[in-house]
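Curious: can you check?
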Amino acid sequence: GNASTASSSRMAFQILLWALCALVSVDAYADVPLRQMSHAVATQTGPEPFTEVATLEGHTSWVFDVVFNPDGGLLASGSFDMTVKVFATSTWTEVTTLTEHTDWVRSVAFNPDGGLLASGSFDKTVKVFATSTWTEVATLTEHTSFVYSVAFHPDGGLLASVSYKTVTVFATSTWTEVTTLTEHTDSVRSVAFNPDGGLLASGSRDKTVKVFATSTWTEVTTLTEHTDWVRSVAFNPDGGLLASGSGDKTVKVFATSTWTEVTTLTEHTSWVRSVAFNPDGGLLASGSSDGPVKVFATSTWTEVTTLTEHTVSVDSVAFSPDLWGPESSVCVYVVDASGLSVADPSVESCSEGAFQSSDMQHIMTIGIHEHWFIKPSDITPGSKSILGSGSFGIVVKGMLNHATEVAIKIPKTRFQSREEFQLANEIRLFRHIRHSNIVLFHGATLMVINGGSPCLSLVLFLEWVDGGNFGEYMQQLRSNAVFEADGHAFAYKILLDVARGMTYLHKLTPVILHLDLKPANILVEKSVPPKGKITDFGLSRFARNSLPQPKVGTEKYMAPEVAQRKPYGPAADVFSFGRVIIWTITGELCPELISSTSSKGLFQTLDEVASSCLEEDSHMRPHFFQVYDRLTTPPPTTTTKIVPPLTTTTMIVL
């Protein structure tokens, strides 16, 4: 940037946030003290489009970069004052300040599961911090000049950083250099991976964008359309587009299928410093030295709005991972001992005073992506019978659009931080998941829960599964006279379905760990044969690298490495599955009882699989796809008539 634009030695830092898209941008050169903005709590799904939510202060000099963590709960910023600051988006208060760098911090990036924060600096280093403790994990010193940009690969296994003429890629498992790309002829200013991780794009002062294949680290193409420095590059969420911002005052967009130019946006009057797509790809934001942030609709490439709150150069723009839904009002529901019902019309209008400010802060932290938002008017509560309850809240049955039975998961009438996190976590992970052996996520909505004192709550709508959980289902089977003949086949089929669903989760990029696999979190569809479905992703997370991680899950089913807070990965879920098999065979978690119940047939196969899953050394356990393959080739069994289990009242355990 041009330091001469700073007219005061006392530099305050400015981050302005606009709601609906939670778009964040920074003034690189704000020269007046700024205040923390408050947010009025209202009985609606979210603030008006692009209204300012907050202005954050704290840095003592220019801010170069801002980024949200993957769940939107944190915002990190890198500054000329040599620090990285982290803010909680629920309260917009500072969480920590990282002071390890000795020169300007030019770029910040979270890894895909939010467990790591990387920063690139003019001190020629990249530093990596664990977000659980905010302690330094690694310092990468391979660069010999300023580091301008850092980016994690979508599976978290690689970290790219750029400097003078180079792009360097590190393996995050060992923090060793994988490759250095030297194709640029001048400083490289920006780097980005595409969503599937197969491509890496870099923008340079040499006026080009270069694209590399990450499988071979060979150059795929060079885009030469810009006539000045390329300062920022970004892929859209489906990877079909690549946007670049340049000192030639333009934003250019390219189709990645042909590497041809789709459009050139010329609305800015000065250097374009940053570009960013929103989470669904429908918007593209750009920040420029001319001050205003411009937002474009990607369907027409027309300008949607210009945000003029900044008066000087905007160095970075970023969208939060969450979007508000389109509904402008919420319905009022009553939750009591008997279940959920629509409130009397006389209480449907609630004043601001009915809510604590923390309610809206919690809801804003979680957010609802527009695609998943369900209008409260589309929901019809079922009978008042509560089908399940637990420490989180209750589950009741309802109808979506008068046609689809759904399980409605309702939190306690007042959020607690632990329950809030688990609920938000389920929504974020469910967005990535679509599989026939995993409970379907229909969406979420905001409800005013008037159970004593009104509060605004985020409610989940999940697939209705009619057979209850696996624990209850097995109890029914064991009471059936034909259990040994048909019950074994039923149980085996459900476990096979679970292995299939877990194979899917472990093959996603990044990998999703369930971390609480147990009979209560396996639902059963009462078909012939029955169908198993995995549920409850409140404790789940994306797989991290070889770092110590929190102890999560249910003790009896927990892998030893999880219980001991050692680094863990997909093998932890495999161990839990082995414990589920033991419980299925014996009715208890007692391996010593297996010999009397699994002497032949299907349960003999389960016994063999369980033994391999329960290896103490996680490296000795099979992958889930190997477990599934083994279960699909069981020994021959006698064909018997299938008798469904007895019908009883269904209870759902949270």
